[in-house]
Amino acid sequence: MGFGQILSRIENVIPKLTQSEQKVARFVLSVPEEVMFMSVQEMASRSLSSSASVVRFCRSLGLKGFPELKVALSADLAQDQKSGYYDLNKNENTTDLVDKILSNAVQSLRDTVGLLDTKMIEKTAHDLYNAPAIFAYGVGASALVAEDIAQKWLRLGKNVYALSDIHVLTMSMANAPKGSVFIGISYSAATKEVVQLMKFAKKMGLVTISFTGFGKSELSELSDYNLFTSLAPEAKVRSAATGSKHSQFFIVDVLYYVCASIDIETSLDKIQRTSDAIQDLKQFDTTDRSNREKND
Fold first, then answer.
1. How many domains would you assign to the chain?
2. Mean pLDDT over residues 274-288, rounded?
3. What are the BP-aspect GO terms (predicted)?
4. Could you tell me which residues come within 8 angstroms of residue 132 by beta carbon, excluding any fewer than 6 positions away?
5. What is the reported pLDDT for 128?
6. Residue 101 located in a structural domain
């Protein structure tokens, strides 16, 4: 997992931390320049916590310990420029609005890259490559991500199901061949239907992948693999979970390209076949429409 954008990660993960870890988090955010030169004991004393809380806080961030936190802070503070997250204001100037939306998207992607675990991506991609069937499920904005997964892996010749009906999806998973994969998508990691399907997938022996915002959850604990996106603060004026959606589509793209590269020649051949099939369909539609117009 990368170190990048650690301060933003801390800001956004605070609600998921214990009270003692929150004390540490707020202290780090208040004086990150000083934390880089502290010992664990000094950090515990200054933040009115304990050494154990400091270590737990670091692990909650996905770091191995306090030394890695100091390295991450050093890398973050060394950056000359840092995008941020911005909310919308009343009577917002369109030019300012464009800049804010761009900044939010860039920051969300940077934070997500900082969370990337390349080994996890590679393992997940290989299981998807070998899977006889892939099932993806999400609700609301996450349903769009499930559909994107289906579109991409269908192009690679996989049997992919992104069904919105949870009962039909459950029936399909009940008869899934060994090695099949279920991807549960929930940015909050708390969507009831996704958690239920994840439990069922585990019961059926499917390989399970959770696709959530960063942090421990029941969904991530149930999964064989966890793909985390940044916990970007959504704007009060919110439209279709914009920040989280950008990050989720980015991870899907990364996973897709890694999977396709496992056997690039075969992948390119299958992608070309699907492209040709769509072109044939368009040609057939054009010819059929022309014939109807002549008959009319």
1. 3
2. 76
3. carbohydrate derivative metabolic process
4. 159, 176, 177, 178, 179, 180
5. 96
6. no
